[in-house]
Specification:
single chain; about 20% helix; 2 helices; four-stranded antiparallel beta sheet; alpha+beta
Length: about 100
C-alpha cells in the first residue's frame, strides 16, 4: 500500500480501520515481515500508536542451530518484560528458556 499512497494517506487509512474495527469489537492481528529488525526503530512508527500490542519474533543461527527470540515491544496497560526472551518449539509446545 505504501507504493500507492503517501504516508499521510496511509496513516489516515490505518486510523479509520482501527476505529472501525474497535467499534465492531473485532480482534485483529496485523503482521509485518522484515528481512532484518533493528530494535532501535519500529517501522512506520506513527502506526505503532494504533496497536495495543507489538511483538517481534525473530531468529538467528548460531553453531548451526536456530535460536528463536521473542521481544514484547509494547503491551498497552501492562508492565511487561523488556528482555529478549529465548524460546524453542518442541514436543511440549512453546517452551521459554531462562
Amino acid at each position: 500500500m505504501r507504493q500507492k499512497m503517501d504516508d499521510t494517506e496511509l496513516v489516515k487509512l490505518l486510523r479509520y480501520l482501527q476505529l472501525l474495527i474497535k467499534s465492531k469489537k473485532i480482534a485483529t492481528y496485523v503482521t509485518l515481515f522484515l528481512e532484518t529488525v533493528e530494535l532501535n526503530t519500529i517501522p512506520l512508527t506513527r502506526a505503532s500508536t494504533f496497536a495495543d500490542n507489538i511483538i517481534i519474533l525473530r531468529y538467528k543461527i548460531e553453531n548451526e542451530e536456530v535460536k528463536r527470540q521473542l521481544i514484547i515491544v509494547k503491551a498497552r496497560g501492562s508492565a511487561h518484560s523488556r528482555k529478549i526472551q529465548m524460546y524453542e518449539i518442541n514436543s511440549k509446545g512453546v517452551v521459554f528458556r531462562q
